[in-house]
Model the fold of this input.
Amino acid sequence: MRFLLTNDDGIDAPGLLACAEVLAEFGSVSVVAPGREYSGCSHQVTVDRPLALKERRPGWWTLDCTPADCVRVALVHLNLEIDWVVAGINPGGNLGADIYMSGTVAAVREAALWRRPGLALSQYRRSREPVDWRRAAAWSKRVLDMVLTDPTASGPGGYWNANFPDPPPADEGSTEIVRCSPDPNPLAVRFDLLAEEPAPADAAADAKRLLYRGRYQDRPRTAGLDVDRCFAGAITVSRINLP
Done:
């Protein structure tokens, strides 16, 4: 298997390095990843400026642009022969409605547009504790074992999104992998008015300043869908088809 690996956290992110080691067990790995973090950039692409492409070491390139751009450059400019595109491992969940905002998931959606199968890998975080990358890598291998042997997995027109639970069950090896649909519920959000802080110099004098607030784990969920199952301790895997 020939893999293209990217992410939205930057080429030096520990999740990308952990994922590269896992993918090397399945085949050859090429990396094209952003030079900095682009979390939450969704499917943004860059068309209004030159892109700086630099080869860090053989088969590893950094690009000063978004994850979707990285996939485009890998396939169109570098002409890499790729069987699968993998994005991650992201240090944070990409569940339910997150798939529309996530740069990680956008990378494999871009792959699907180019008729390449793709898999996004994310580690849901309930606490502020550091991610256990050893555990996330082991779970990534289990998901890859499942997806790569599924005869329908590499079909065109769709991509895969996997999320790992936090905290894990006592026996990590027994963590259930569940195929389920993404939860369409929106995030539970609110905006606080910052009335006492001075406005920036370039803001209108009468502008109101709003600050996003929200607790990821308080989001609404539907029984049996990915948010509910991952929050309950399962590894969730969703197949998402392009319209």
